[in-house]
Structure to design on (814 residues):
C-alpha cells in the first residue's frame, strides 16, 4: 500500500481523535461530587474507554475491505459506549444525588433552549449532563472511534500484504497484522487523547464551552504529533520485509 | 446443529450477563477502596482538619487500574490454557487470583503512600483499616477480572459474528480500560455526590465551600469504606453493571442480529452498524426525557 | 520542588542507571552468549532499571501539576514507548538482517524523538508552563521503550523482531506490557503524592512495582522460555525486599501508626 496513505491516515486519524476529545463533556473530580457539569472522570480516561470500545468494534469488522464501513463500525462502538455511560451517569445524578442536569457556563441550552441558571445549585458550576453536553459527547465519540478505525484499517492493510505478516493457513485474517495494527492504533489514541486533554486543561463541557475555542491549537498539536507518529509507523512496513 | 444466529444470541446474552456482574463489582470495588475522582475528597479531608478512617486507594485512574488487572488475569489465563492445557474455567480463575494478589499489593502501597505523604496534617496510618479492607477489595476485583476475562474468551470463540482477531490478553486489556472508564463515570458519582456528603441535605450538588468536609462518622463509631459500599450497592453499583452490560450486549447484538439480513460479504456489518446508530439516537432522546423529568419534578433550586 | 525531608536523589545518577544500565543489560545477552537461562533474566533486569528511571522522571515532572493527573503522562509515554520500540525493532531490519542489532537503540531513539515532538507541542503550541516538560517527557519515553523492549525480550528469549512478533505481539502480551509498565512507572509517584513526598521512599516503591511486573513477566513466558521460573522467582524475591523497605519507611515517616481506635482529637480547626 502507498506509504503516503498510511502516513496521511495516521495523521487524519490523530486529528479526529484529538478533535473528538474536545467534544466530550468531562468535569473531572468536581463532576464526580456534583460540583461541575459533565461526566465525573478525566478527559483522557473517558476518551480512552470510548476509544477502546471503538477499536474492538472496528477490529471485529477487520474482514471487510471497505474503509468507510470500518470507520463507521468504530464510530458506532465509541458513540454507543459514551452514550450509555453518559445516560447512566445522568441516572445517578437525577435519582442518586437528586440534582437537575444543568450547566453554569451558558444561560440557555443551545439545543433545547431550556433555561439553566435557575437549576444550578448555588456554589457549584452545574451538575449532570444536559442535552447539549450529551449531543456533544456523542459527536466526540463518533470522531474518536472513526479516527481509531481509520488508523487500524490503514496499518492492517499495509502490513497484511507483507509476507512476514501473512495470515496463517486456514485463517482469513492475519493475527500478526491485526495485533500490531491494534496496539499501534491504541498508542496513537492515547497520545492524542492526552495532548487534547493538556489543551483543555482537564475539564470541558462540550462545543458550547468557552474553552472549545482552543480547538485549533489542539488540532495543530495533534496534527504534528500524529504526522511524526505516522512516519515512525511507516518503519514497521519498511522493516517488515525480513 | 442449532441455528448459528440463535447460538450467537445466546453467547451475546451470556457475555452481557458476565459484563453486568463485572460492572457492578467494579463500581463497588472502587467504593470499598475509595478510588478515582471521589477519592480527591478523602485526600483533601485531612488538610481541612477532618481526620478519618477511610481507605485511600490512589492506584491511578480506574481505566488504567482495571486494564492492568484484567490484562494480568487474561494473560495468565491465556498462558495456563495454552502452555499447560488446563481447563478454561480453572485457567481464568487462576489468572484472576494472580491479578487479585497484585491488586492487594498496589492497594496497600497506595494507601500507605498517600497517608504518609500528608503526615503534616496528623492523619494516623491505621493499619487495621488496611488489613480489614484488603479482603473486600481483592474479592470485588476478582469478580471483575474473572467476568471480563470470561467474556473476552467468549469473543474469541470461532462462532459466526464472533472470532475476534485480537487474542485474549489484548481483549482483556481493552475491556478492562473500558470498564474502568464506565465505573468511574457512573457509579462513582453515587459515592462522591451522595455518600461522601451524607451529613448535608439530599438534593442538589456539592458547593465548593464544603469540599473536604466528608462524612466521617457512621451509625456506630467511625465510618470506614465498608460502610460506603453497603450504601452504594443499593444503586450506584447495579446501574454501573447495567451500563457495562448494555454496552457489551448491544455492540455484539448488532453484528449477530445484522446477520438476519443476509450473511454475504458486508451485509451483516452494514445492518449491524445501522442498528447501533438507531440505538445512539434513542439514547439522546431518553436522556432528554430524563432531563425534562428532573426539571419538572424537582423544579428550580430554592433557598 | 525537590524531595522534602529526605536525602535528595540525583536525577543524573538515576538517568545513567536507567539508560546506560538498561542498554548494557539489553545488549549483554546479545553480544556474549550467556545461554537460555541468564539471557532472559538480564533482559528483565534491564526493563526493571528502566522502570525505576521512568518513575524518577515522572516524579520530577508531575510535581509541577499537569492538570490531568499523574497517570495520563504515564500512559502517554508508554504509548510512545510501545510505538517507538516496535517500530525501531522492525525499522532496523530495513537495512537488511545484518543490522538487526541496531533495533533496541533505534527503538529508544525513535521513542525519544516522538516524546520530544509531543512535549514541544505541549510547550510551544499549547503554551504549557512546565519548564522541564520536554526533558522529562523525552526521558520517560526512552524509559518506556526500554522497559517494553526488555520485558518483551525476556518473554521471547531474544531481541529479534520475528521472535517478539510471534510470542509477544501476536499473543497480545504487548497490550499487557503497555498497561503493566504504565502502572509500574506512574504508580510510585502517584501513590506517594503529597507535601511530605520523599523521593527515596518513592523509589523504594518503584523497585517494588518494577520487580512485581518482572515476576508477572516471568509467569507469562511459561511455555515460551526455559528461564520463566528464574525470572519469576528473582522478581518475586526482589519485590519482597523492596516492599518490605517501603513499608518500613512508611511506618517510620507516618504521623503515627495505630492498629485500632479513633483519630487524635484536633485543636479547633
Amino acid at each position: 500500500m502507498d506509504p503516503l496513505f498510511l502516513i496521511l491516515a495516521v495523521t487524519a486519524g490523530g486529528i479526529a481523535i484529538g478533535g473528538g476529545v474536545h467534544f466530550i463533556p468531562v468535569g473531572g473530580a468536581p463532576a464526580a461530587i456534583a460540583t461541575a457539569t459533565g461526566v465525573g472522570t478525566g478527559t483522557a480516561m473517558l476518551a480512552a474507554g470510548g476509544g477502546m470500545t471503538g477499536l474492538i468494534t472496528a477490529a471485529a469488522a477487520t474482514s471487510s475491505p471497505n474503509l468507510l464501513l470500518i470507520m463507521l463500525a468504530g464510530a458506532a462502538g465509541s458513540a454507543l459506549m459514551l452514550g450509555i455511560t453518559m445516560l447512566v451517569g445522568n441516572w445517578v445524578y437525577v435519582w442518586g444525588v437528586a440534582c437537575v442536569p444543568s450547566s453554569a457556563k451558558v444561560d440557555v441550552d443551545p439545543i433545547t433552549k431550556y433555561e439553566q441558571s435557575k437549576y444550578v445549585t448555588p456554589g457549584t458550576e452545574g451538575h449532570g449532563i444536559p442535552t447539549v453536553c450529551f449531543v456533544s459527547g456523542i459527536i466526540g465519540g463518533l470522531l474518536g472511534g472513526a479516527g481509531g478505525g481509520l488508523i487500524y484499517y490503514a496499518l492492517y492493510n499495509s502490513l497484511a500484504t507483507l509476507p512476514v505478516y501473512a495470515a496463517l493457513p486456514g485463517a482469513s485474517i492475519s493475527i500478526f497484522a491485526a495485533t500490531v495494527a491494534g496496539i499501534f492504533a491504541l498508542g496513537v489514541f492515547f497520545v492524542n487523547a492526552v495532548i487534547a486533554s493538556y489543551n483543555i486543561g482537564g475539564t470541558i463541557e462540550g462545543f458550547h464551552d468557552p474553552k472549545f475555542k482552543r480547538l485549533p491549537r489542539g488540532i495543530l498539536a495533534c496534527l504534528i504529533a500524529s504526522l511524526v507518529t505516522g512516519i515512525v509507523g511507516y518503519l514497521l512496513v519498511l522493516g517488515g520485509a525480513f | 446443529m442449532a441455528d448459528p444466529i440463535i447460538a450467537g444470541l445466546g453467547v451475546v446474552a451470556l457475555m452481557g450477563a458476565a459484563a453486568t456482574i463485572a460492572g457492578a463489582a467494579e463500581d463497588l470495588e472502587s467504593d470499598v477502596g475509595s478510588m478515582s475522582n471521589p477519592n480527591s475528597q478523602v485526600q483533601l479531608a485531612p488538610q481541612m482538619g477532618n481526620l478519618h478512617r477511610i481507605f485511600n486507594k490512589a492506584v491511578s485512574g480506574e481505566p488504567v487500574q482495571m486494564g492492568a488487572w484484567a490484562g494480568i488475569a487474561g494473560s495468565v489465563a491465556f498462558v495456563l490454557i495454552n502452555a499447560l492445557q488446563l481447563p478454561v474455567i480453572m485457567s481464568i480463575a487462576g489468572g484472576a487470583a494472580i491479578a487479585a494478589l497484585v491488586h492487594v499489593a498496589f492497594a496497600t502501597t497506595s494507601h500507605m503512600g498517600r497517608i504518609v505523604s500528608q503526615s503534616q496534617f496528623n492523619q494516623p496510618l491505621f493499619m487495621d483499616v488496611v488489613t480489614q479492607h484488603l479482603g473486600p477489595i481483592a474479592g470485588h476485583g476478582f469478580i471483575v477480572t474473572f467476568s471480563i476475562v470470561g467474556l473476552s474468551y467468549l469473543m474469541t470463540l470461532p462462532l459466526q459474528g464472533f472470532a475476534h482477531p485480537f487474542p485474549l490478553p489484548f481483549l482483556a486489556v481493552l475491556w478492562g480500560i473500558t470498564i474502568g472508564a464506565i465505573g468511574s463515570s457512573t457509579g462513582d458519582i453515587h459515592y462522591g455526590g451522595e455518600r461522601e456528603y451524607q451529613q448535608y441535605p439530599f438534593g442538589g450538588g456539592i458547593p465548593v465551600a464544603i469540599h473536604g468536609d466528608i462524612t466521617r462518622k457512621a451509625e456506630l463509631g467511625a465510618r470506614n469504606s465498608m460502610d460506603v459500599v453497603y450504601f452504594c450497592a443499593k444503586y450506584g453499583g447495579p446501574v454501573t453493571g447495567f451500563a457495562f452490560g448494555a454496552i457489551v450486549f448491544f455492540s455484539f447484538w448488532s453484528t449477530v442480529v445484522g446477520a438476519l439480513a443476509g450473511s454475504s460479504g458486508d451485509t451483516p456489518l452494514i445492518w449491524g452498524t445501522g442498528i447501533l446508530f438507531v440505538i445512539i439516537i434513542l439514547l439522546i432522546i431518553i436522556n432528554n426525557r430524563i432531563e425534562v423529568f428532573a426539571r419538572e419534578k424537582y423544579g428550580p433550586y430554592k433557598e | 520542588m525537590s524531595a522534602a525531608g529526605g536525602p535528595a536523589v540525583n536525577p543524573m545518577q538515576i538517568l545513567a542507571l536507567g539508560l546506560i544500565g538498561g542498554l548494557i543489560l539489553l545488549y549483554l545477552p546479545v553480544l556474549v552468549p550467556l545461554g537460555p537461562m541468564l539471557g532472559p533474566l538480564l533482559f528483565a533486569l534491564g526493563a526493571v532499571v528502566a522502570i525505576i528511571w521512568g518513575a524518577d522522571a515522572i516524579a520530577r515532572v508531575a510535581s509541577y501539576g499537569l492538570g490531568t493527573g499523574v497517570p495520563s503522562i504515564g500512559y502517554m509515554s508508554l504509548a510512545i514507548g510501545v510505538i517507538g520500540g516496535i517500530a525501531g525493532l522492525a525499522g532496523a531490519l530495513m537495512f537488511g538482517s545484518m543490522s538487526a542489532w541496531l533495533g533496541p537503540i533505534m527503538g529508544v531513539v525513535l521513542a525519544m524523538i516522538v516524546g520530544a515532538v509531543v512535549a514541544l507541542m505541549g510547550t510551544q503550541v499549547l503554551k504549557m508552563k512546565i519548564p522541564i516538560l520536554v526533558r522529562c517527557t523525552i526521558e520517560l519515553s526512552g524509559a518506556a521503550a526500554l522497559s517494553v523492549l526488555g520485558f518483551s525480550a525476556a518473554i521471547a528469549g531474544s531481541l529479534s523482531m520475528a521472535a517478539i512478533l510471534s510470542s509477544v505481539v501476536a499473543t497480545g502480551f504487548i497490550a499487557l506490557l503497555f498497561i503493566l509498565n504504565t502502572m509500574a512507572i506512574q504508580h510510585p509517584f502517584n501513590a506517594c503524592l503529597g507535601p511530605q513526598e520523599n523521593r527515596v521512599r518513592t523509589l523504594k516503591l518503584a523497585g517494588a512495582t518494577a520487580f512485581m511486573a518482572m515476576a508477572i513477566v516471568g509467569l507469562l513466558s511459561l511455555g515460551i522460555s526455559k528461564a520463566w521460573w528464574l525470572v519469576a522467582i528473582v522478581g518475586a524475591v526482589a519485590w519482597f525486599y523492596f516492599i518490605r523497605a517501603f513499608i518500613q519507611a512508611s511506618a517510620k515517616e507516618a504521623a503515627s501508626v495505630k492498629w485500632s481506635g479513633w483519630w487524635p482529637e484536633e485543636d479547633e480547626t
Notes: The longest helix of chain A spans residues 67-96. Residues 22 and 136 of chain A are 9 Å apart (CA to CA).
